[in-house]
Design a protein that fits this description.
The complex is a heterotrimer of chains A (369), B (250) and C (323).
Chain A lengths: L1 H16 L1 H21 L7 E6 L5 H11 L4 E7 L5 H6 L5 E5 L3 H7 L2 E9 L3 H26 L5 E9 L6 H32 L1 H6 L5 H30 L8 H25 L3 H19 L14 H4 L3 H15 L3 H25 L6
Parallel strand pairs in A: 1-2, 1-3, 4-5
Antiparallel strand pairs in A: 3-4
Helix pairs in contact in A: 2-11, 7-9, 7-10, 7-11, 7-13, 9-10, 10-11, 10-13, 10-14, 13-14
Chain B lengths: L6 E10 L2 E11 L4 E6 L5 H8 L7 E6 L2 E2 L4 H7 E5 L10 H11 L4 H15 L14 H12 L6 E5 L7 H16 L3 E5 L3 H4 L4 E6 L2 E6 L1 H8 L4 H9 L10
Parallel strand pairs in B: 3-8, 3-9, 6-7, 7-8
Antiparallel strand pairs in B: 1-2, 1-4, 4-5, 9-10
Chain C lengths: L14 E10 L2 E11 L4 E5 L6 H8 L7 E6 L2 E2 L4 H7 E4 L11 H11 L4 H15 L12 H13 L5 E5 L7 H16 L3 E6 L10 E6 L2 E6 L1 H6 L5 E5 L3 H9 L4 E7 L2 E6 L6 H14 L6 E4 L4 H10 L7
Parallel strand pairs in C: 3-8, 3-9, 6-7, 7-8
Antiparallel strand pairs in C: 1-2, 1-4, 4-5, 9-10, 11-13, 11-14, 12-13
Helix pairs in contact in C: 3-5, 4-5
The chains are: A alpha/beta (369), B alpha/beta (250), C alpha/beta (323).
């Protein structure tokens, strides 16, 4: 028994004396709790609403006022026709639209019923359903208010609803683009991180350093071969999305492949930065996994809508490459948009790649110790 | 099998798939002997030692260490022997005292026994002032001497030393061997492997393994006479390359 | 500073170090190292682990920057001219640092390509060594024996025609026969004009160098040709043979003038503390002492000091040997 006691004591000492690992193992759960706690919001606020009101009258203005009040919705524009809606949805500017039929007020007064069309961006089926429920509730409350004033005939405002981009509210359509981003991030970053740190650990890096090879050549040599491997990953994951999960592919497949390639390079560069600054393969792996998996899942908008996160957390999400790729992949697959709408996100990825590669080359120490 | 031998191997064999690492070796080591177990890398030394200390089961043949069968009574064997290797001996992030206490505990010593023996050990090594420092901060030679003493803390009948003096400075190396002599004089059997051929001369008897078999066994003088060599180094060379040409180990 | 007998550095020296120091935190790995290596020499650093050999080699190959002092290799400064040096230097670090999952041939080809050449182009140059491993050229490097690995590493270090080779403990962990073969190869390379700087913990390998530097604890104890180092041993040295070695050592130590007694292979080396005394006289004195202790059959003779004897004497007198 005392042999085992001695052993347990020994293990405790190892744990306490390995400050680095101890820090990670104590701080990480705390960080996770904080991160999840703030980011985990499935309720929706500040829905960006576009109003289409061809012939504004007292009733439409009143109903519009109901939407504007209360903070749930944010009216970002008023249009006269529905023509302007499609691009706004495609660019991701609008979450929802309320379309009044012409002569809304008259119909209510004379016939006792009028129609209003609610269009919701259902790329995220959870928030889509929630937004639709909110909007429907607003309309119904107004209907009740009017009914109490109208008398025996009653008043009916009929909301017709449409879910854009994801009419059947398939959650797999939400997840799969995000999953692609997660898988590519982890695999690519891990690959390059492990490869570079393995070179260090084996001792072969020592021999490589005493050669004419420059840091950028070594780093490029570590990134390029994995491009092919990463691309193979993209193809298999997309094939799974298409054939198994039947995720729609409304946009250009070529564009998606191109963006995926760019994203892989971004992640590979991330991996080399991690390897350049960490000492051992083990540390590089831990850093890659914990540094990327959590933020990509939580902050990338994979599971929880970014718009629902607290204001101070939202800018942080811009640093996560996965976030941009999720926007791109969802845009192409579900909304069918092209480079015209996605050029900003693409530029962000390209810029991040350049910065990361430069950082990796800089961090790469030309000497030991 | 004679009852008095400390170590006895009879046709001890170990195969890994199609490859025979140790090929039916037979030898015995008497009590209190200093036995040198030599051989090139890849000759099967490490595999043989692993079988003798009870951590690797033989494929065939048998061996008895401290009177116990290494296959059937491996745990009994482990209890009666000490072990120290070049690659690992002590935990670097524990202090000297903590290492002693740990190994003492593992071998079932009481706290009082550990305390007493630790004190004597530290004094005889002259380490008392360094007792509460991490092993990591000790120079290599000190570490090896300390590891040897710790391997002996439970007063085993036999101690196995696997290249204990690799890379150590020449003075410490010899001081280490004086510790070995002192242990042997006290009745402990010492089974040691080494790459330093001059250390082979310090042993009572020596065996040389080549390609899984024992190619030579005897006192250093006997071997030198048998092979007409002036040193064990030369014996080694004659054995390893009998044809004089380049030879590639399996 | 030890009486290291360093020559005054000249511009033609292959290596010239002056007062190089390097510390890692609390530890002083190198403490005021100065020496020169002439072109075409085999220069050996003999010393145990922790002596500072690897740190020194890393400085010489531009992998580390010294905290103090100047270091020049092939006339270039190791700090400022690192890229120029990295083209011209061949390096074999302490442990096996090639790719175990690539074949013998693939490893050599890779290192050739990194330096802008090919195996084919340099075949004649490395042939004496490469031919020994060529039968195994398809085999994965990780599956080679220790001796073969060392030869492969040597090929990879040579394939780009370096002007100087730095080999850090190339024979550690390798069997005695392979060690000899390796040193034969080095002698051949030196015959071709290559300067070789090598480190080893094996004292007997010192004899294969033109000059050696004995190094311990980050300092150089002495620099000289191997034979001369032994010749400068400051005290009378005797070789003693006899049975019951352990008790014989104790008996010798009981002699009043015993400075040190150490086992050396099949004999014991006894060093007397009377500098300048006649060794033959000391020998008969010690023999008589042993006889009185019950070791009449012991044989006592004057002996010539070797590298190891000198190393140990210098280790025990850290601030310069008494000579």
């Amino acid at each position: 028994m005392s042999a085992m006691r001695g052993f347990v004591v020994k293990e405790l000492r190892h744990i306490l004396r390995d400050r680095q690992t101890l820090l990670i193992l104590l701080l990480l759960p705390l960080a996770q709790v904080l991160l999840f706690g703030f980011a985990l919001r499935t309720d929706v606020r500040g829905v960006r609403l576009v109003v289409v009101d061809p012939r504004p009258d007292a009733e439409t203005l009143a109903l519009r006022g109901r939407f504007a009040a209360g903070g749930l919705f944010r009216v970002i524009g008023v249009e006269a026709t529905t023509a302007a809606l499609a691009p706004r949805f495609q660019r991701g500017e609008a979450d929802q639209a309320v379309v009044f039929e012409p002569g809304f007020g008259e119909k209510l007064a004379h016939e006792g019923r009028a129609q209003v069309l609610l269009i919701t961006d259902a790329t995220d089926p959870n928030t889509g359903a929630t937004m639709q429920a909110y909007a429907t509730a607003v309309v119904q409350r107004y209907e009740q208010e009017m009914a109490s004033r109208a008398g025996p005939r009653g008043v009916r405002i009929v909301p017709e609803t449409r879910m854009r981009f994801n009419p059947t509210l398939e959650s797999v359509n939400l997840f799969v683009p995000g999953l692609i981003a997660l898988v590519l991030t982890i695999v690519s970053a891990l690959m390059s991180a492990i490869s570079l740190s393995r070179e260090k650990e084996r001792g072969t890096l020592e021999v490589l350093l005493v050669s004419p090879l420059r840091p950028w050549e070594i780093i490029a040599g570590k990134v390029l071969p994995y491009l092919a491997l990463g691309f193979a990953n993209v193809l298999t994951v997309l094939a799974a999305a298409w054939f198994v999960f039947r995720v729609p592919f409304r946009g250009s497949v070529l564009l998606l492949l191109g963006e995926s390639l760019l994203f892989i390079v971004t992640c590979l560069s991330l991996g080399t930065v991690i390897a350049a600054v960490t000492g051992s393969q083990r540390t590089a792996m831990i850093a890659a996994l914990t540094g990327l998996m959590l933020p990509t899942t939580v902050l990338g908008g994979l599971l929880f809508p970014i718009d629902s996160m607290p204001a101070w957390l939202r800018p942080l999400t811009n640093v996560v490459p996965g976030k941009w790729f999720i926007l791109i992949s969802r845009g192409i697959m579900l909304k069918g948009v092209g480079l015209g709408e996605l050029w900003q996100e693409t530029a962000m990825l390209a810029g991040m790649t350049a910065v990361l590669l430069a950082a990796a080359v800089r961090a790469f120490r030309v000497r030991l110790g | 099998m004679s009852a008095g031998a400390a170590i006895e191997a009879l046709g001890l064999t170990r195969r890994f798939g199609a490859f025979t690492a140790v090929d039916a070796i037979t030898f015995s080591v008497g009590r209190g002997e200093v036995f040198g177990f030599l051989g090139a890398n890849g000759a099967g030394k490490t595999t043989a030692i692993r079988m003798l200390i009870g951590v690797l089961a033989p494929t065939s043949g048998e061996a008895r260490v401290a009177g116990r069968d290494v296959y059937a009574e491996a745990e009994e064997v482990k209890r009666r022997i000490g072990y120290m290797s070049q690659r690992f001996s002590l935990y670097e992030d524990l202090t000297v005292r903590e290492n002693i206490a740990l190994y003492g505990g593992i071998y079932g010593l009481t706290d009082e026994e550990i305390e007493a023996r630790a004190g004597r050990l530290l004094e005889s090594l002259g380490f008392t002032h360094a007792a509460d420092g991490l092993v990591r901060s000790l120079p290599l030679g000190w570490r090896q001497k300390l590891a040897f003493s710790v391997a002996m803390i439970h007063q085993p009948e036999i101690v196995f030393l696997d290249e204990p003096t690799g890379g150590v400075d020449p003075i410490t190396r010899r001081q280490f061997w004086e510790m070995i002599y002192a242990a042997a004089a006290g009745g402990t059997t010492v089974f040691v492997t080494t790459h330093y051929m001059d250390e082979a001369e310090y042993c009572d008897r020596v065996s040389i393994m080549v390609a899984g078999r024992i190619a030579a066994l005897g006192t250093p003088d006997e071997l030198k006479r048998e092979f007409g060599a002036a040193s064990i180094d030369e014996v080694f060379v004659r054995l390893a390359r009998p044809d004089g040409g380049a030879q590639e180990a399996a | 500073m030890s009486a290291a007998r360093a020559r005054v550095p000249s511009t033609e020296d292959a290596v010239a170090l002056d007062g190089v120091a390097k510390r890692f935190g609390e530890v002083r790995a190198l403490d005021g190292i100065s020496f020169t290596v002439a072109p075409g020499e085999i220069f050996g650093f003999i010393g145990p682990d922790g002596a500072g050999k690897t740190t020194l080699f890393r400085i010489l190959t531009t992998l580390l920057v010294p905290d103090a002092g100047a270091a020049r290799v092939l006339g270039l400064d190791v700090v400022r001219d690192l890229w120029a040096l990295r083209r011209r230097v061949g390096y074999m670090p302490g442990r096996f640092s090639l790719y175990p999952d690539l074949s013998v041939q693939e490893n050599v080809e890779f290192f050739a390509s990194v330096f802008g050449t090919t195996l084919k182009a340099e075949y004649e140059l490395i042939a004496p060594i490469y031919r020994q491993i060529e039968p195994f050229r398809e085999r994965r490097a990780g599956a080679l024996s220790g001796g073969m690995k060392q030869k492969l590493a040597l090929c990879c270090a040579l394939v780009h025609r370096p002007a100087i080779l730095f080999l850090d403990e190339p024979t550690t962990g390798v069997d005695a026969v392979s060690r000899r073969e390796f040193w034969d190869l080095l002698a051949e390379l030196r015959a071709g004009g290559l300067t070789i700087v090598v480190s080893t913990p094996y004292m007997d390998e010192a004899g294969r160098c033109d000059r050696v530097a004995l190094i311990a604890g980050g300092r150089i104890l002495r620099i000289d040709a191997p034979g001369a180092i032994g010749a400068a041993y400051p005290l009378p040295l005797l070789a003693v043979r006899g049975p019951r070695r352990f008790e014989l050592i104790q008996a010798l130590r009981r002699h009043p003038h015993a400075r040190s007694v150490f086992p050396f292979g099949d004999e014991l080396h006894y060093t007397d503390d009377r500098a300048g005394a006649d060794p033959a006289g000391v020998a008969s004195e010690v023999a008589a002492h042993l006889a009185s202790e019950g070791f009449a059959e012991a044989r006592v003779e004057p002996a010539e000091a070797g590298i190891e004897d000198s190393f140990m004497a210098l280790m025990e007198a850290p601030e310069g040997a008494a000579a």
